[in-house]
Amino acid sequence: MKALVAIKRVVDYNIQVRVKADGSDVDIEGVKMGVNPFDENAIEEAIRLKEKGIVTEIVAVTIGAATHQDILRHALAMGVDRVTLVETANSLAPLAVAKVLKAVVEREQPALILLGKQAIDDDAGQTGQMLAALLNLPQATYASQITIAENQATVVREIDGGTQTLSVSLPAVITADLRLNEPRYVKLPNLMMARKKPIETLPLDSLNLSLTHSVQQLKVAAPPERPAGVMVKDVNELLSKLRTHEGLLP
């Protein structure tokens, strides 16, 4: 069984992002980048399935400029077999990303397609669902547990108020939640070996896709700063302030 994992390059989750002075976008100049955390869970799950003998080959794919090779090297160091970069200088909306991944899936013919449930930069959480719809494949999102047997995947998924268990036939699209697993620590020797491994590069134009940009980013702004708190002497003063100044109490 072949597994394909789609990953995205985002600002490291430990970094406090800043908005450019002109408000055009987030400033990532010189900022540490890395694999989207949810996508790293997807990579880890594919590797664990391979260690169990269920998956025989893992292919990781990302979309972006040549700088995105760093996260592919990270995937190789974790244990992925092959990696593919769909190269483009443009930033793609979720639907366009899903169309690109559809072309890669049709090329690779995997039995299992894994993605993170969302990316931490835009928090859209749409690509996996759109990809499943375009491929006309079953989907299981927000997975916290995956069990594969007899060409079926049993998935425990996170929902409001609890969990839900689904059984989907393969091939299928599954999106990973953080509770799915704990990604392994990548050792330096593995990173050094990953630098020598080949990266397949596909120019986006070579896929002959018609991608329309239906979403336009107009402006980016930081959230307003939280006002400073006010110290009160006792409960009576607190209630008085809530009534007279904040209008929170009748």
Automatic annotation (TrEMBL):
PROSITE patterns: ETF_BETA (PS01065). Keywords: Electron transport, Transport. Residues 23-211 form the Electron transfer flavoprotein alpha/beta-subunit N-terminal domain. Gene3D superfamilies: HUPs (3.40.50.620). Belongs to the ETF beta-subunit/FixA family. This is Electron transfer flavoprotein subunit beta. It comes from Methylophilus glucosoxydans.
